[in-house]
């Protein structure tokens, strides 16, 4: 059987995660990594090519996995790559998904490619759960909790506080709030009741720790609406205990059927590495994209349009016999 | 908009659950209930028709929901109804699914109908989770836990024990086993380690309770391989506290990415009523069946073949904007 030939655009944490994931999927092979950096400055297990030359690889790559960021990379790379290749990406600016979908769709549709956008876990597997849960239990309430996990945005915000040398922020779902939803109480939860924020901060020598803590916990948008705990630690401790990128969360749905029967559905992730997990999801969707393309389909899709059977290397017969 | 016209074959707990569920879905209407019993002996909110006359309803029903049992009803009704209608069923004899699929497919394909078989939660939503989890984390272990919930088969087995007047059996997942999986330990679990069985038994007057307990806990296939607790209660207590049909369970998958990073995925259900929840799943899949049929598709499908987008009454645009 011919392997599915994969390319990676962007070689940060996500791109490296894809490289690892491909090794766990014997029906795929990684062909090349494409970068905007100088290719000789990047070390990978496959050839590293300048993104300027990507067009020459149209016949050598079945699916291109876009591993750039949603703020500035994907709005440009998504449509540009969908013109040349079948693509999968993890565009995660929720509010801009509709317009991004249209732009990618235009290029994919017009050039005979298939594109799955906004996959990963949120958007992605969490979105699938939200859809499934409300379709099955239309009279009910949905709740999404994130964490325990590192928020890059909040960690960056801490590091911008005067007197802070380094820092990491964890988002933590409130155990009490989760239990209330699981018990079918259908609570109305404020922002403060849903999540806590815990910060591990390395201060510069001689900095005013009280002042740093006050600045963090009162920071508008980031911390003011939450209960926030600030822990001061040293650089060694930060490196030793807080250099991983764990994350995860829960989608919960509490609904009612019949004459007031409570039904609770739950999907949860506990991830040792957020980017490695996200890339594993992208790789599974690359398999689906390849199959759709081989059937002659074209245009943009989301996780909502892809049957799960296309994600597995197993045949439909095998799936029915082994997993149903 | 024209409503999706639904029929029910079989009016037990599952059929009644469908009747309730349709009321929560304004894009559907229940047309009739079909029964093998004498129609005048059955009370429903819609006309009750003898199953012998079902053929006359081909133009009046878009999707027929088969609510009979897997042991004797569905093996006959599945293919027979797929000849006449688009159908959805919950055939749950795992080992016989492949042959059942072929039989239904032959009738559906040959007569221009769409059939989704073996939906509900297991098989159904649990199967989807098993597939998704192993597709995303191919290097990992899957675990399915059932309960806490009533097992009809085990409850029946108790009631056949001499001296037993009535009884209910609960299957309960071991908290310790679940926690070990959640912690990424990848344990090898024996049958005894995964689930406990708890029985509530009403004994006949003068019966030997010690003897009943001994017979239950040593019963081969049903209880011998498990730790089983037997509680004797009176008939009033059984009615008051054990007449619901709760169930649920967990699908857990513990996998590894990158260089040994642990990733845990989980799907869980906590159901106040097993049949009411199962019927809510059937109804969501009826919507998908109707849409596939309107596109001109034909043949048998499983949950693995149906994109989640088809389960929701919302348009693709709405789903992308609201739920992705």
UniProtKB/TrEMBL annotation, chains A, B:
Substrate binds at residues 146, 171, 197, 247, 274. Keywords: Amino-acid biosynthesis, Diaminopimelate biosynthesis, Lysine biosynthesis, NADP, Nucleotide-binding, Oxidoreductase. GO terms for biological process: diaminopimelate biosynthetic process; lysine biosynthetic process via diaminopimelate. Its EC number is 1.4.1.16. It catalyses: meso-2,6-diaminopimelate + NADP(+) + H2O = (S)-2-amino-6-oxoheptanedioate + NH4(+) + NADPH + H(+). Residues 120-273 form the Meso-diaminopimelate D-dehydrogenase C-terminal domain. NADP(+) binds at residues 11-14, 35-37, 67-70, 90-92, 119-123. SUPFAM superfamilies: Glyceraldehyde-3-phosphate dehydrogenase-like, C-terminal domain, NAD(P)-binding Rossmann-fold domains. Pathway: Amino-acid biosynthesis; L-lysine biosynthesis via DAP pathway; DL-2,6-diaminopimelate from (S)-tetrahydrodipicolinate: step 1/1. It comes from the Bacteria. Belongs to the diaminopimelate dehydrogenase family. Homodimer. This is Meso-diaminopimelate D-dehydrogenase. It comes from Paenibacillus agilis.
């Amino acid at each position: 059987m011919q392997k599915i030939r994969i390319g990676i655009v962007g070689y940060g944490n996500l791109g490296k995660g894809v490289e690892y994931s491909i090794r766990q999927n014997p029906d795929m092979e990684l062909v090349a990594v494409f970068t905007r950096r100088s290719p000789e400055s990047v070390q990978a297990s496959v050839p590293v090519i300048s993104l300027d030359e990507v067009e020459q690889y149209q016949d050598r790559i079945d699916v291109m996995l876009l591993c750039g960021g949603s703020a500035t990379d994907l709005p440009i790379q998504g449509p540009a790559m969908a013109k040349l290749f079948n693509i999968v990406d993890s565009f995660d600016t929720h509010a801009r998904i509709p317009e991004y979908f249209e732009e990618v769709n235009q290029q994919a549709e017009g050039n005979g490619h298939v594109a799955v956008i906004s996959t990963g876990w949120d958007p992605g597997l969490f979105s699938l759960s939200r859809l499934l849960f409300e379709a099955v239990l239309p009279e009910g309430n949905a709740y999404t909790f994130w964490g325990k996990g590192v928020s890059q945005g909040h960690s960056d915000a801490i590091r911008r506080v005067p007197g802070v040398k380094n820092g990491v922020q964890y988002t933590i779902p409130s155990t009490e709030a989760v239990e209330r939803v699981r018990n079918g109480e259908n609570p109305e939860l404020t922002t403060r009741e849903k999540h806590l924020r815990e910060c591990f901060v390395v201060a510069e020598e001689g900095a005013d720790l009280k002042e740093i803590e006050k600045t963090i916990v009162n920071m508008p948008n980031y911390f003011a609406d939450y209960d926030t705990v600030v822990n001061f630690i040293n650089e060694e401790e930060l490196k030793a205990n807080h250099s991983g990128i764990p994350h995860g969360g829960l989608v919960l749905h509490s609904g009612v059927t019949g004459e007031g029967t409570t039904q609770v559905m739950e999907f949860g992730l506990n991830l040792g590495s957020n980017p490695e997990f996200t890339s594993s999801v992208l790789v599974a969707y690359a398999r689906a994209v390849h199959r759709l393309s081989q059937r002659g389909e074209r245009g943009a899709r989301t996780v909502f349009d892809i049957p799960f059977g296309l994600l597995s290397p197993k045949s439909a017969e095998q799936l029915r016999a082994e997993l149903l």
